[in-house]
Request: fold
Amino acid sequence: QVQLVESGGGLVQAGGSLRLSCAASGSIFSTGLMGWYRQAPGKQRELVATITSGDQPTYADFVKDRFTISRDNAKNTVYLQMNSLKPEDTAVYYCRITMITVTWSTSDYWGQGTQVTVSS
Reply:
């Protein structure tokens, strides 16, 4: 029923920009924390940024001042604006959204991942 669809990944030269989107669809009562994670080959998945339902963002140090996370609660969508991209940003990026049910229980949903490749 609930599905997260990511888009916006691709190939870009170092210093360029990309904007990732993650839209949740289906029967959604409410959403809680939204976030972006990434995983490079041979590395563990790491947190990139999160944003609360009250629009309070947090960022990993390695993307601070370069990436901006935002959300549109009406569209159940989270975005990641990535500027000044570096080759080390190359990874598969995954979104995660916490869904809140009518009984106020929560469940985390993950996107399918989108590849971001930054060339030198």
